[in-house]
Design brief:
Layout (H helix, E strand, L loop, with lengths): L1 H12 L3 H10 L4 H35 L2 H9 L1
Length: 77
């Protein structure tokens, strides 16, 4: 019994281009929503990748403008 369940699960995970194409045909009236969703997803991914780069630049610039003697004095005071 478990063997057939396991084989059914593996069959469902395989990508079939014909099934994907028929799915795209079914959403034809709402195709613009699909395009907008994909574009917003790309924009969101790009903005999530930009944030660490900005933080990296800030940290690298911060090292040059910190007076370490003053920081040590303030920490131990």
């Amino acid at each position: 019994m478990q063997n057939t369940d396991k084989s059914a699960k593996t069959q469902q995970t395989k990508f079939n281009f014909k099934d994907f194409a028929s799915l795209v045909k079914q959403i034809k009236p709402h195709f613009w929503q699909l395009i907008v969703g994909v574009l917003l997803g790309i924009i969101a991914t790009g903005s999530q990748l930009i944030v660490p780069k900005i933080a990296q630049k800030l940290v690298n610039q911060l090292h040059h403008s910190i007076n370490t003697k003053l920081v040590i004095i303030r920490v131990f005071k």
